[in-house]
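User: Run a structure prediction on this.
Assistant: Running it now.
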Amino acid sequence: QVHLVESGGGSVQSGGSLKLSCTTSGRSFDGLCMAWFLQSPKKERAEGAVIDDDGSVGYADSVKGRVTISRDNSKNILYLQITSLKPEETAMYFCATLEWRPCVESVQQPMVLHDPRNYWGEGTQVTVSS
């Protein structure tokens, strides 16, 4: 069992930046494939960024170049730095642990969303105003 808690969301203007955090507990952080997903009333939950335990990363095309996913294995914390935020990126941002392998390819596989092996946080709200 893995417990995930997101933080760092808030309201920003279009073009602004945020850094989100996800703290993990309940099992060893080492070896976890971890990802950030976005979900809004207009869009199904979708993966935006993923990071393997060795630091390898993958990004959805829609956010590539504007986000950086990172992890601090010593603190069991996952991060997402987001820049140039767009109004359409107003959403709940969820962190998750994934069992998809190779880990970083999960961002290219929509079916990972429905993997029952996933563990999810409750999400943190990001609101981007025009």
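The mean pLDDT is 95.
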